[in-house]
Specification:
Elements lengths: L11 H10 L1 H22 L10 H10 L9 H11 L9 E6 L5 H12 L2 E6 L6 H20 L11 H14 L4 E6 L11 H5 L2 H5 L3 E7 L16 E5 L4 H9 L8 H15 L6 H15 L1 H4 L8 H15 L9 H4 L8 H12 L4 H15 L5 H5 L27 E2 H11 L8 H12 L3 E4 L10 E4 L3 H11 L4 H4 L1 H4 L10 H11 L6 H16 L5 H4 L2 H11 L5 H16 L6 H9 L6 H13 L5 H4 L9 H10 L4 H22 L15 H14 L4 H18 L6 H6 L9 H10 L7 H14 L7 H17 L6 H8 L7 H17 L42 H50 L9 H51 L4 H16 L24 H5 L9 H12 L20 H7 L2 H12 L3 H18 L1
Parallel strand pairs: 1-4, 1-5, 2-3, 3-4
Antiparallel strand pairs: 6-8, 7-8
Length: 1118
């Protein structure tokens, strides 16, 4: 339907003139407006000249002439009229009208439909239990309206399902051509009907093919009506609450005829100034305004105050209005309310006054409370209720068959000794049972609070009593002394005392929570939950009946996807809190929280990211008990014996004992390890890729991007993932002036691992060297860059090349200490993991641990067949003897080798001489026929003889080295065999591992002997943690120097709460006179000179007498 806000013409001829001018453009508009104009005239029986209003003001005119005087809802009525106001046009399928109570929803819809004269059925959903009953009621209502209109009779319809209902509606529509409107008031009740009921009634026009509309009236929003199969969304019309001015107009309609309008308006302004802030319900305000007006005009009728004196009238009625706020929703009768001093019911008032009027002593009130507890609690359960279990074993109570007694209906008798025992138990301080205290029992018997029961002849020594005070009386008495009696009388606390009587009690609480959880008060609902927890702790409730964990988890997981921001944020916060408390610490919870990282709601995404960033570290400081913090019971007991006995020291001793026992129990418990949530993710590769894609796609804040990058870097480092696009992305931001650049450096170090290709990380190192480690930057920037390079190379040493490392190690001689120390830490790192890459002078003296370290290739994995160093555990005593024998043999061998070397050198010289002389004699004795050697041939022979000498010497050295290597190989092979035997055939204990660690640590500091080599590789123990600490990168000073401002802050912080130095005047009155000692300090020395001389000249006896007198005087002063 096309709506126009133009003014309607004064009469129909003007409309005809418009269509004559431009028939094509005004034709449709004329037809539309003519229908509205004609229907308006027919409804109000008006002439065309009497109505000259716009279409939106038409409905306002309709409301103003109604008998019910509907005001303050003009816009809503206009919208309703535009939807269902024309009978010849199709109406919308469904309309949802919602708003607070008493906002005019039902009244306006009913009034409008009455004037439109449609075939209407009004249904109050509270009165109907099911859909079948509702179908029959609607059809009967529609048929009744047809009978009243036409006067004919029709047969009743009986519907069992929605199809029969639709067929019946078609038949009714054939007999009556009027539009059909179904109004469902309090429609939130139909949510419990059949699943198909709500979707069907919202689409009746489509299903039946007739002009029908469904109007739903509710006080809750449409989001609460979601069904499993889905529903058609209706047109929603919201009725807001009335404003203060609108309420004044509505309340003015109930004005009394005896007073004028201005006077009643002034009263309403005073009335609403008190009630408008706390109540907007029109029905309640109408009722309270009518009742309070009678009290408002009382002084006027008695002629004590004039009507125009509003200030005096306000002072008279203000106290009454404020007191009536407490009973605005109690629905009290008018007669009771109009009584002059109405406060509470007479019974409660009399009980309270009676309890407060008793002038009982303090301990007598506790005696009365003890008597009431003895009457309503079984005697055999006093130990469980009033005493703490000191021992681990509890005494078994034999079950005796007794008649069932309801403790809340019938009180028990008790003896005086039991009452006194409970009296001492409920009192916090120790009280002696004396005659004055026992005399209070007879006083309470005379007052009727206690009564003597039983025959005193059978039991002469034990008198039995019974408490006659009511429950309310005891509660008031207990409140006066600050005693929580409900903790000893509640069914949750005493439920285990009555297992037969309270069998159905837990189920009743569960039923209340399941059926009335929406309407219950928050505190009441929390109290019921606490009661169920107490019952579960006492084994009175099965865990499956209390809570089904899987159902609750599924509910929380589904709430995470809720479009409502508060619901999704609350669900993720609850799951994180339960994970941190080790309640839901399974894989399913972690992966559901991981889905929150991709939420479109920023709060949910940030909470999920913080979860993965906050649970990685194990809090060793809190788990490990520090010896300094633990209480030393021996010192505490000795100090308590020596010092003066006071209540404060007794409390301190008690507290120290409790903390000592707690620390002892904590030590005996097994250690609990909190694994990181990042280890529990199902597919970390896919999770990291999606997170990184989200960073590139979304335009989030810089802080959110930092958190996401942190999570991605931790995933890459922990799971050794391949995400090669991550490194160039961060490389763009590696500049000293970049915001939070240290965190970005931490992320790039965390994302480094051994499986990252060196070609990917090599540009990162070059960027760090060019942008950070240059002399144009400050020393702090250079040190941070070197620390980052060290952390990256610790995790991926193959990314560093020899030239770059040589350039970086030259900074070990830099003038700034921070840069020098960072360069030395880089050199120390490469000494441990890859010493071959360093220069020879930077490698240092080799030790047994790193002499045979070999640089592994990319992707190479070295596995050990045994635990390194475990050979020290194999027959230590035998091994010690063997080692001593081996050392003796080695010493002898070394001595022989030294002597052999010296002898061989002498022998070599002698042999050379003898050979030369022999050769010369042979050459002389030869015949002339032998050819003489030329000079050149002699020189060649001498060179050959020289080479043979070196070869002989080298051969002997090779033999010695071969002998030593064979010995070392035998020794290492034997150690390897022992280590493999121990690793495979023996379970190593913590003590054994400590011995192994000591042996390995000894190798790190023991320098290697020449020629001794280890044949098996030692498994490298990576001391670096899974994650990179930000302090490792930012640690450029061992201890920063404090500037002047920081020193002043520390000084002022130490001065807080400290007493001033100097003399402390402890006198209560600072204006009183001074003592003689203080006056003596102000005297001149010439006045005291003679007295000091006499003091010096005193004899020993005089000094002794003076001291004695002084001590006596001091004793008297005490």
């Amino acid at each position: 339907m096309v709506r126009h806000n133009n003014q309607l013409p004064d009469n129909l001829p003007q409309l005809q003139n418009l269509i004559k001018r431009d028939p094509e453009s005004y034709k449709e508009e004329f037809l539309q407006q003519h229908l509205h104009y004609k229907s308006t005239l027919e409804v109000f029986h008006l002439e065309p000249t009497q109505f000259n209003k716009s279409l939106d003001e038409l409905v306002t005119f309709l409301a103003q002439i109604r008998k019910n005087n509907i005001i303050c809802r003009e816009k809503i009525i206009a919208r309703l009229y535009s939807l269902i106001g024309v009978a010849d046009e199709p109406m919308p399928e469904s309309i949802f009208v919602y708003g607070h109570m008493a906002t005019g929803k039902s009244l306006i819809i009913q009034s409008l439909l009455d004037y439109l004269n449609y075939n209407v059925s009004y249904v109050n959903c509270i009165e109907h239990l099911g859909s079948k009953h509702l179908y029959n009621y609607i059809l009967d209502d529609l048929i009744t309206s047809i009978k009243e209109l036409n006067g004919d009779t029709q047969s009743k319809y009986n519907c069992d399902n929605i199809m029969d209902f639709i067929i019946a509606l078609k038949k009714i529509s054939c007999n009556d051509k009027r539009p059909i409107v179904l109004v469902f008031d309090k429609c939130h009740k139909i949510r419990h009907f059949d699943v198909t009921f709500l979707p069907a009634i919202l689409r009746l026009r489509e299903l039946a093919g007739i002009n029908i509309c469904t109007i739903l009236i509710s006080e809750i929003v449409w989001d609460k009506f979601n069904t499993k199969i889905g529903t058609l969304r209706p047109i929603k019309i919201y009725f807001p609450q009335y404003t203060k001015d609108e309420l004044a107009q509505l309340l003015l309609l109930d004005k009394s005829t005896n007073y004028d309008t201005d006077f009643y308006k002034s009263y309403l302004n005073l009335f609403l100034s008190v009630f408008f802030r706390f109540c907007r319900d029109l029905n309640e305000l109408q009722h309270m305004a009518k009742i309070n007006f009678a009290k408002y005009v009382e002084p006027i009728e008695s002629k004590r105050i004039k009507p125009d004196n509003i200030a005096a009238l306000w002072r008279n009625i203000s106290a009454t209005l404020r007191s009536n706020l407490e009973i605005i929703y109690l629905r009290v009768s008018t007669n009771d309310f109009l009584q002059p001093d109405y406060q509470m019911s007479r019974e409660i008032e009399s009980t309270t006054k009676l309890a407060l009027s008793f002038e009982l002593p303090f301990y007598a009130k506790y005696m009365l409370i003890a008597a009431y507890l003895a009457s309503y609690n079984p005697a055999k359960y006093d130990k469980h209720i009033f005493m703490k279990q000191s021992s681990k074993k509890k005494k078994k109570i034999r079950s005796i068959k007794k008649t069932k007694e309801d403790a809340q209906k019938k009180c028990r008798v008790f003896t005086i000794s039991r009452m006194l025992a409970i009296f001492c138990a409920i009192l916090d301080e120790k009280v002696d049972i004396n005659a004055n205290l026992l005399a209070q029992i007879s006083t309470m018997c005379q007052l009727g609070l206690l009564s003597i029961v039983g025959d005193n002849i059978t039991q002469l020594d034990e008198t039995k009593f019974k408490c006659c005070a009511s429950h309310d009386f005891i509660f008031v008495v207990a409140k006066t002394v600050g005693f929580e009696i409900k903790n000893y009388l509640s069914a949750n606390t005493v439920a285990h005392c009555y297992p037969n009587d309270l069998k159905t009690y837990p189920q009743e609480i569960i039923d209340i929570l399941q059926t009335h959880n929406i309407i219950l008060d928050n505190e009441m609902r929390m109290t019921f939950c606490k009661a169920l927890i107490q019952l579960r702790n006492k084994s009175l409730l099965e865990p499956t009946a209390l809570l089904i964990n899987t159902v609750l988890q599924n509910f929380m997981f589904s709430m995470l996807k809720d479009p409502n921001v508060r619901a999704a944020k609350m669900s993720v916060d609850i799951m994180i809190e339960l994970y941190n408390k080790n309640v839901w610490n399974d894989v399913k919870t972690v992966n559901v929280i991981a889905t929150g990282c991709f939420s479109k709601i920023t709060k949910v995404m940030v909470a999920s990211l913080k979860f993965f960033l906050g649970t990685h570290s194990v809090e060793k400081e809190s788990d490990d008990s520090d010896s300094d913090d633990e209480p030393n019971m021996k010192e505490i007991m000795i100090a308590n014996k020596v010092n003066k006995k006071t209540k404060k020291r007794q409390k301190q001793l008690k507290k120290a004992k409790q903390s000592f026992i707690k620390a002892k129990k904590k030590k005996s418990k097994a250690p609990q390890y909190n694994f990181s949530a990042l280890h529990l993710i199902h597919d970390p590769q896919d999770f990291a890729e999606k997170l990184f894609k989200q960073i590139e796609k979304n335009n989030d804040r810089f802080e959110v991007k930092l958190m996401t990058l942190d999570v991605v870097s931790r995933l890459i480092g922990l799971h050794s993932l391949f995400l090669l696009n991550f490194y160039p992305y961060i490389q763009r931001f590696l500049q000293p002036h970049q915001r939070e650049v240290t965190k970005l450096l931490q992320f790039i170090a965390q994302a480094s691992h051994e499986l990252v290709p060196p070609d990917v990380l090599e540009p990162i190192l070059k960027t760090l060297a060019n942008n950070f480690i240059t002399e144009r930057n400050s020393a702090d920037v250079m040190a941070i860059g070197l620390n980052t390079v060290r952390e990256i190379c610790t995790r991926c040493p193959l990314a560093m090349n020899e030239d770059l490392l040589e350039d970086l190690t030259r900074y070990k001689h830099y003038k700034e200490r921070s840069v020098m120390m960072a360069a030395q830490s880089l050199i120390g790192t490469f000494r441990r993991i890859m010493p071959d890459l360093l220069c020879k002078k930077d490698r240092g003296r080799p030790t047994e641990a790193n002499v045979m370290i070999k640089s592994s290739k990319y992707g190479e994995i070295r596995a050990s067949e045994f635990v390194p160093g475990s050979e020290v555990l194999h027959n230590q005593s035998v091994e010690n003897t063997e080692e001593t024998n081996d050392t003796d043999k080695e010493a002898k061998i070394s001595d022989e080798e030294i002597s052999d070397e010296e002898v061989s050198d002498e022998e070599i010289d002698e042999d050379e001489l003898t050979n030369e002389s022999a050769k010369s004699s042979i050459n002389e004795n030869k015949d002339d026929k032998t050819l003489t050697l030329s000079h050149s041939e002699n020189s060649i022979l001498q060179k050959k003889n020289a080479l043979t000498k070196q070869e002989k010497k080298a051969q002997k050295l090779e033999k010695k080295a071969k002998f030593k290597s064979e010995k070392n190989e035998e020794l290492t092979a034997e150690r390897k065999m022992k280590a493999s035997v121990i690793s495979t055939e023996r379970l190593l204990t913590d003590k054994d591992f400590r011995k192994i660690d000591v042996a390995l640590a000894k190798q790190d500091v023991t320098y290697i002997k020449r020629g001794v080599k280890r044949t098996h590789d030692k498994v490298e123990i990576d001391k670096s943690g899974e994650l990179v600490k930000l302090s490792d990168i930012e640690n450029i000073y061992k201890k920063r120097k404090h500037d002047k401002v920081a020193r002043q802050k520390s000084v002022k912080k130490g001065q807080k709460g400290r007493d001033k130095f100097g003399f402390k005047d402890r006198r209560q009155n600072p204006l009183c006179s001074t003592t003689n000692r203080e006056k003596r300090k102000g005297k001149a020395f010439s006045m005291l000179k003679q007295k000091l001389k006499t003091k010096v000249k005193r004899s020993f006896r005089e000094k002794q007498i003076a001291l004695k007198n002084h001590l006596i005087k001091q004793k008297r002063m005490k």
